């Protein structure tokens, strides 16, 4: 446990620093190496139980053909506490998220899914011309209203209906959804709102979201949002 705590403290400290400064993390401070004791594949990711010089720890990377006994390097590490994997039906007291590098990274596409999701560059769907009617009921808002009235709506519940244009599952224990309804403008970034939820969806779904507006949220490592909806539930 002391060894795990040491790893967590070092990498978490680096991660917080990275959230304040967009410069890339120094590789030496954001790398964990170890022997694979166990590997579990789910739809998009591979979970690895590693034996490192400081003890055992779990890590998650983009899905890759990693074998038991392999020596791997996890780069761009981010530490999560009490992370629940819906796919494995397991909660990890401490787990490292990152990209697969070193010998393990030689596999085609190794770590790409996680790297793309964590950098916020997952491809947005070709949305075309979106026209989704505004939700009805108490606290109903359009995407543009939420994005332009963030200060007014801060910490308040909202109801919004829109089309899922981007979906990244199991990031920081939540599913990350970008929602558009045709309102707002690309020019001033008021046409798209981020929603975090434990519910599942897929790109192209039209859903009604009920959640709480939060503002000026910085998750670190490039996850910084002026306005977003959290604690959300979805209905189709």
Give the mean pLDDT: 77
Strand % is over 45%
Overall structural class, as computed from helix and strand content, comes to alpha+beta
Evaluate the radius of gyration: 19 Å
State the distance separating the first and last CA atoms. 44 Å
Oligomeric description of these chains: single chain
Molecular shape:
elongated
CATH architecture label name of the largest domain: Beta Barrel
How many individual helices?
Answer: 4
Instruction: Describe the strand arrangement of the main beta sheet, using strand numbers.
Output: 1-2-3-5-4
- Helix amount: 10-25%
If you consult CATH, what is the topology of the largest domain?
Answer: OB fold (Dihydrolipoamide Acetyltransferase, E2P)
CATH class of the largest domain: Mainly Beta
* Domain module tally: 2
Low-confidence stretches: 1-29, 103-122
Biggest sheet record: 5 strands, mixed, barrel
Helix/strand order: HEEEEEHHHEEEEE
